[in-house]
Write a structure and sequence with these properties.
Layout: H1 10-18, E1 27-32, E2 35-40, E3 51-54, H2 58-64, E4 68-71, E5 83-86, E6 89-92, H3 95-98, E7 102-105
Antiparallel strand pairs: 1-2, 1-3, 4-5, 6-7
Amino acid sequence: MELERQVCSLKLAQRLRRLGVEQNSIWNWCKINHKWIVVWAYSEEPIKATQYAAAFTVAELGEMLPIVVEAGKAGTGISSELLSIQKGHFGNVGNDECNGRSCIMT
């Protein structure tokens, strides 16, 4: 698979940079000779880029997500239950732990 398809798009990278997202990634989108390319951030050779933006991987973006995301009240929004997303693995657990619903285990 092409490297450019394994990192965020140039458009998203530039938007995240403008929004002030810290530019710590193992890959960068760099403008070299009027062309945007993805380069490894820790290259031993100096990169003569006129512009750059962090080219985050899916894993790097996932690590930036908040621990918990909640949306709406019960009976409104996406479902009839309160949406709560937490970092962890997804699975079904017993009625005692999640009231019989699928939930995220941390």
